[in-house]
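A favour, since you know our structure tokens better than I do. Would you make up a two-line entry for one protein for me to read? Write everything out right here, beneath this request.
=====
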Amino acid sequence: MIISNSTPLINFSAIRRLDILHRLFGIHITPVVENELFIKGKHYPNRATNMSPLRGL
């Protein structure tokens, strides 16, 4: 298990390669990271534009 912040998820999502993380490690998003991605992240102008693939992981 690898624990991380939202940065790798945002970056891999931006290049549409979340499949790499999912295949190598699996993806489980903690409530804190989910909040950062989907609630706080709406206010970050440079965040990845399409975070929908992360929903439900």
